[in-house]
Amino acid sequence: MKIIQVTDLHLVAPGERLHGLDPLGRLDAALADIAAHHGDAALVVFSGDLADAGAPAAYEALRDRLARFPVPVRLMLGNHDDRAAFRAVFPEVPVEHGFVQTVVDTGEGRLILLDTLDQGAVPGRLCDDRLAWLDARLAEAAGRPVYIFLHHPPFRLHMPVLDAVRLLDDQAFLAACRRHGDVRHVFAGHVHRPVTGSWQGLTFSALRGTNHQSSFDFTTGQGATIEEPPAYAVILIDAAGVVVHFHDFPVRLDATAVARDPLPA
């Protein structure tokens, strides 16, 4: 099974720019590259921060583009999103307990797409309702492989500015994963960095966004936006395991376009 992960679009209204870049133009480039090379994908998961400030015009621009996109998609939310504005534009997207989260059952196992948005805050949270929902969905999948997608990583990257805004309920998330199910991999967004590893026995990956990226800073805690090639992930899952390829899709890079702005909230 092939899944494409796209994350951190940070869309703005058509004609606007963000950090000197064109988020909609870069999304168009990503979608064109995926359609050209991965039309056989089972699914494209957009793992949050669809809009930069939750503007309805940004969600409407996304909807217009996805209407012409040939691969099935699932949309998730991140800390830059607005749940109400998103749901007004995408009323058909599955919602559980008021949160934009769902499961996708496949021949290779269960995908759980988890809503970690804590409206108005940068770090992610899992309230009691979301933890109970996760617990139930994992219990249902007993005996089957499970793959979890969420915007905020529960794991530390040893990069202070990013670790401060991870999923704060990391231990509750871990406990749920350990109680139930065979969780094979955790896929995250949010950090705008390509990274893989293992955390408490769970393998994970995260990747660059489609617009700006986070500076590669392990020491200062003063992160900044930078321009590095935007990317999407090609995820290949079978009975033998999980392989994640990070692919830098073609765009024109302009190192002078992006000021080293502090990482936005």
UniProtKB/TrEMBL annotation:
Superkingdom of this protein's organism: Bacteria
Cross-referenced Pfam families: Metallophos (PF00149)
Calcineurin-like phosphoesterase domain boundaries: 1-194
UniProt source species: Prosthecomicrobium pneumaticum
One of the record's GO molecular function terms: cyclic-nucleotide phosphodiesterase activity
Protein name from the UniProt record: 3',5'-cyclic AMP phosphodiesterase CpdA
Keywords (A to Z) from UniProt: Hydrolase, Iron, Metal-binding
Protein family per UniProt: Belongs to the cyclic nucleotide phosphodiesterase class-III family.
